[in-house]
Amino acid sequence: MLKLSRLADYAVVILVNLGDQDGVVTSPFLASETGVPEPTVAKILKVLSANKFVLSQRGAKGGYRLARPLAEISVASVISAVDGRIALTACVEGGECDAGVSCGLCGSWDTINKAIRDTLEAISLETMRQNSTCGSALMAKNQFGGVSTR
């Protein structure tokens, strides 16, 4: 099974939430908005800041904001920033074979890996936000005393 890491998933959630905010917001605010534990939010924001996805502002009115619009941030770029290069197998793009011996498929995974990477590169976080089907469920939860969506 191909599966996104939890940190990469959280990073996308945090960035999309930041895209819904006006101005600067704090790490605890993002934690309460997203349900991601605050220490994890802080860790992810540090990575996102180092990779120029978010800008940090220090001081009493400090916090984080997007460095650029969601439409200019691809899913692939977030995954790469959090997890490193997108690779289905260790031998993709000339890497070493995990088995230590030749399996006879050297280079065969490159085509599949490129298709996945290209697809993720073509999907922006704005597209993810617009295609979300859980927004109405979050609004309903908020109306009945659940987590805030704003």
Describe this structure in a few short sentences.
The chain has 150 residues and is mainly alpha-helical. 50% of the residues lie in helices and 5% in strands.
Question: Could you characterize the architecture of this molecule?
Answer:
There is one protein chain. With 150 residues, the protein is mainly alpha-helical. The chain is built from seven helices and two strands. It has a two-stranded antiparallel ribbon. The protein is elongated.
Please supply descriptive tags for the structure shown above.
150 residues, mainly alpha, 50% helix, 5% strand
Q: What is the percent of helical residues?
A: 40-55%
Strand order across the largest sheet: 1-2
What is the end-to-end distance? 34 Å
Radius of gyration: 18 Å
> What is the overall silhouette?
elongated
Strand content: 5-15%
Average pLDDT level: 85
> What is the ordering of alpha helices and beta strands?
HHHEEHHHH
Number of strands: 2
Briefly note the structural class of the backbone: mainly alpha
If helices are DSSP runs of H or I spanning 4 or more residues, what is the number of helices? 7
Q: Flag low-confidence runs.
A: 136-150
Largest sheet, if any? 2 strands, antiparallel
